């Protein structure tokens, strides 16, 4: 009698493999050699009794080998995407053979044109994604990821990506600054800030103060919150659309408002609450977050990343910048905000394209930037401003690399002198003495995203002349929350064996599509991509399949009991005709069987019924059966069988 030793790696869920490197000791134990360090194994033996008979032992307990050496395999990069002209996102999986506990990952980014320097950073071992920012547009970069343990650095995985070139503004997309000035809403061209050539698009009574403004560039509307508790909607030219949108919410004194332009919601800060309100009729509001005893100063919503950001100012116990996932807003059970930055922050701005937050630092009289998760904080104006005026900022925006801001009583802008690399600040000559709620207004200020990842898990069910295609939504990127926008349209492409597209069908709703007019017994390839009005995403992996041979194969179907009906359902899930409805299906079907054109079923009352399909006859009750539960038909012996509580007939 002989035996084989088999081994498998538990962590990778590998198959059992024969392992020849072992020695049987006199004690009967087995000394196994040539294993890999820091790997979890299981073992078993297969005894060969005869040429056709064998006996298999139980699997051993899980055993991990000791660490030794640097990692012997590289991490696997699962996603490398240029999120914007200046930002690259990379995600990876740990190496299979770490050879010891990992301490960190080493990331480097190298411009391939040779006119830049390498960026290198170490990130903690519990991270599996990273964002490189402040890059140049239209450049080729190589990203390298390696793993590090106590013995050293392992091999690296390298991959290249190209940052896109930003588009130019057309005349129609002239940028405007929309802001509150005392009891007015002002619209002014951003490129003409040093003039007083601005337009008052809304004028409130002098006793009312504008406290917040939100814009929706796609709908060309402006929302105005004021200290009387009203939220007013006007178009961008000031035409009144609704004087009190959220009268049913009983707002007391809203202090900030912002617009989710992709899901069509507004978010309103009022006292200790943040409300989530419908932007389209019928107008309604729900409590998104309650943060007693604190009051949010400014809020901003980012539907691209899927988070709501807000600041708490001038509180000793809790201050700074916070965020919650949009998917958690308004859920039962109070969502727990993430504290991103601990500082006195009143106003802040979000750069949707470059995934950055800009916020003031009054202590150092400057503007800081951080990624959307609060990491990689840097000073955006260190040593480059002549006589800075970044103190006590209430609201700010950034356009074309320059800031516009207010401290509540004065407005400022800056100009850049490329000759000496210096920014100069200007106080704008406006007569009003209260300013708030700065907003950029031009199409690119509220971008429509393009899908950056393909649909997942594409599956196709072929009949003789159709293909039923299903897929899952695109994978969210590493910086996105569950509330990030993913309501894409989809395109399904069907290709022949030669790779030529023979059908391309748009799917505006849902995650499935039926493709008609295919040929029987023919090879096809199917792929899916997500798309938006801003562009198309990458194609999914291709599904290879073949239609069935005979056209009459489409006569195959399922018979299902639904409510008080028996229905024919095609193999692709499409409901066909109803076989039987109402009585005697009521009070429900317990079991089903069929033979040729006959359908048998047992009811919940224990009766057996038979019905001939394709006839107008009513179902007949089989009187010889009582208290039946399960039913089956023997298509060879042509007998029906059923079970009862005590006996089987």
Keyphrases for this structure?
6-blade_b-propeller_TolB-like, signal, globular, disulfide bond, 5 domains, five-stranded mixed β-sheet, FN3_sf, mainly beta, Ig-like_fold, 649 residues
Description:
- It is a single chain.
- This protein has 649 residues and is mainly β.
- It folds into 5 domains: 2-64, no CATH class; 76-162, Sandwich (Immunoglobulin-like); 171-445, 6 Propeller (Neuraminidase); 456-551, Sandwich (Immunoglobulin-like), CATH 2.60.40.10; 556-642.
- The chain is 0% helix and 49% strand.
- It has no helices and 56 strands.
- The strands form 15 sheets. Strands 1, 2, 5, 6 and 7 form a 5-stranded antiparallel β-sheet that branches. Strands 34-38-37-36-35 form a 5-stranded mixed β-sheet, with no helix packed on it. Strands 42, 43, 45, 46 and 47 form a 5-stranded antiparallel β-sheet that branches.
- A hairpin with a 4-residue loop joins strand 36 and strand 37 (411-417).
- It is globular, with a radius of gyration of 33 Å.
- InterPro entries: 6-blade_b-propeller_TolB-like (IPR011042), FN3_dom (IPR003961), FN3_sf (IPR036116), Ig-like_fold (IPR013783), Type-I_Cytokine_Rcpt (IPR050379).
- This is Fibronectin type-III domain-containing protein.
- Pfam families: fn3.
- Keywords: Disulfide bond, Glycoprotein, Receptor, Repeat, Signal.
- One of its GO terms (molecular function) is cytokine receptor activity.
């Amino acid at each position: 009698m002989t035996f084989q030793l088999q081994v498998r790696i538990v962590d990778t869920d590998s198959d059992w493999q024969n392992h020849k490197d072992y020695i049987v000791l006199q004690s009967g134990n087995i000394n196994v050699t040539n294993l890999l360090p820091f790997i979890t194994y299981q073992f078993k033996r297969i005894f060969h009794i005869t040429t056709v008979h064998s006996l298999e032992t139980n699997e051993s307990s899980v055993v991990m080998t000791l660490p030794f050496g640097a990692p012997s395999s590289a991490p696997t990069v699962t996603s490398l995407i240029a999120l914007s002209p200046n930002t690259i996102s990379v995600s990876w999986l740990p190496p299979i053979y770490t050879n010891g506990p990992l301490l960190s990952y080493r990331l480097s980014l190298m411009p391939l044109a040779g006119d830049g320097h390498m960026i290198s950073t170490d990130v903690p071992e519990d991270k599996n994604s990273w964002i490189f920012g402040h890059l140049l547009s239209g450049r080729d970069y190589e990203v390298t990821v390696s793993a590090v343990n106590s013995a050293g650095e392992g091999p690296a995985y390298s991959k290249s990506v190209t940052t896109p070139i930003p588009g130019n503004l057309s005349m129609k997309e002239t940028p405007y600054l929309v802001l509150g000035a005392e009891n007015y809403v002002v619209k002014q061209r951003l490129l003409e800030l040093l003039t007083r050539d601005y337009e008052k698009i809304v004028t409130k009574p002098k006793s009312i103060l504008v406290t917040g403004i939100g814009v929706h560039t796609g709908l060309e509307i402006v929302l105005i919150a004021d200290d009387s508790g009203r939220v007013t909607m006007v178009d961008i030219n000031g035409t009144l659309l609704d004087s009190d949108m959220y009268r049913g919410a009983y707002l007391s004194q809203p202090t900030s408002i912002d617009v989710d332009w992709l899901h069509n919601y507004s978010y309103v800060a009022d006292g200790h609450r943040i409300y989530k309100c419908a932007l389209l009729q019928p107008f309604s509001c729900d409590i998104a977050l309650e943060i007693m005893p604190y009051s949010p100063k400014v809020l901003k919503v980012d539907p691209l990343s899927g988070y709501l950001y807000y600041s708490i100012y001038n509180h000793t116990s809790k201050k700074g910048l916070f965020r919650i996932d949009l998917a958690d807003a308004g859920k039962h059970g109070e969502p727990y905000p993430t504290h991103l930055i601990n500082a006195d922050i009143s106003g802040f701005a979000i750069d949707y394209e470059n995934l950055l937050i800009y916020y003031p630092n009054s202590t150092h009289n400057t503007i800081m930037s951080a990624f959307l998760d609060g990491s990689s904080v840097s000073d955006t104006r260190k040593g480059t401003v002549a006589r800075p005026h970044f103190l006590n900022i209430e609201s700010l925006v950034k356009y074309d690399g320059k800031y516009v801001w207010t401290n509540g009583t004065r407005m400022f802008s800056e100009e850049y002198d490329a000759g000496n690399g210096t920014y100069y600040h200007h106080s704008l000559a406006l007569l009003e003495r209260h300013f708030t709620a700065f907003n950029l207004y031009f199409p690119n200020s509220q971008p429509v995203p393009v899908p950056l990842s393909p649909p997942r898990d594409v599956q196709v069910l072929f009949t003789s002349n159709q293909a039923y295609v299903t897929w899952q939504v695109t994978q969210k990127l590493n910086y996105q929350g569950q509330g990030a926008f993913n309501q894409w349209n989809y395109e399904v492409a069907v290709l022949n064996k030669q790779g030529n597209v023979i059908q391309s069908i748009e799917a505006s709703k849902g995650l499935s599509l039926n493709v008609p007019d295919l040929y029987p017994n023919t090879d096809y390839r199917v792929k899916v991509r997500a798309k938006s009005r801003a562009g198309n995403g990458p194609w999914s992996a291709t599904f290879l399949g073949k239609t069935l041979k005979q056209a009459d194969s489409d006569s195959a179907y399922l018979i299902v009991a639904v409510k008080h009906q028996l229905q024919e359902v095609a193999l692709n899930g499409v409901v066909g005709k109803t076989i039987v409805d109402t009585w005697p299906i009521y009070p429900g079907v317990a079991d089903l069987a069929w033979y040729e054109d006959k359908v048998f079923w047992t009811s919940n009352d224990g009766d057996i019924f038979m019905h001939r399909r394709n006839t107008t006859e009513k179902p007949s009750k089989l009187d010889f059966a009582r208290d039946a539960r399960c039913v089956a038909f023997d298509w060879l012996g042509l007998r029906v069988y059923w079970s009862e509580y005590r006996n089987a007939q």
